[in-house]
Amino acid sequence: MAKEPLAAMGHTIHVYDFHVAPGTGDTFIAEFDEADKSGTNQMHQSPAQVKDGVLCRDDDDPDHFYLLGEWTDKEAHQAIWSRVFGGDDLPERYRFVVGGSFKPVYATVVA
User: Fold this and answer.
1) pTM of the entire structure?
2) How far apart are CA 95 and CA 99, in angstroms?
3) Which of 78, 96, 106, 111 is surrounded by the most beta carbons within 10 Å?
4) Nearest to 44 by CA among 63, 69, 14, 75
5) H/E/C letters for each residue in 50-82?
6) What is the pLDDT of residues 79-107, one digit of tens each?
């Protein structure tokens, strides 16, 4: 018997694949989680966001992370992303991100 899929057909999944400065992974998680649950995350205020995203830590590299989320509308995500991350400076909670870039890869759920 098939189980419920992780995401719905036709929805967009965003994937951020990034590293934080060596040794800062635990601090990054704590600050990310606090900000994410603060009620001020602009992403959470969009009706196009299906579920809260998930932050995943690489089992083999404690400073390597993936942030994934499901949206009904890629353009809605891109519009908010541009406001929050499109400038020269990342929000404070992302100060540990190596390279200063925080851009998602988008994929459409097809099966």
Assistant:
1) 0.88
2) 10
3) 96
4) 69
5) EEEEEEEECCCCCCEEEEEEEECCHHHHHHHHH
6) 988 888 776 677 888 889 998 678 899 99
Token code pair at residue 18: 């990034």
Handedness of CA 66, 69, 74, 76 (dihedral sign): negative
Domains and CATH numbers, the chain: 12-108 (3.30.70.100)
Mean pLDDT taken over the chain: 90
Helix (H, G, I), strand (E, B) or coil at 31: helix
> Both ends of the chain: CA-CA distance in Å?
16
Instruction: With a cut of 50, list the residues of the chain below it in pLDDT.
Output: none
Which candidate, 78, 79, 102, places its Cα nearest to that of 89? 102
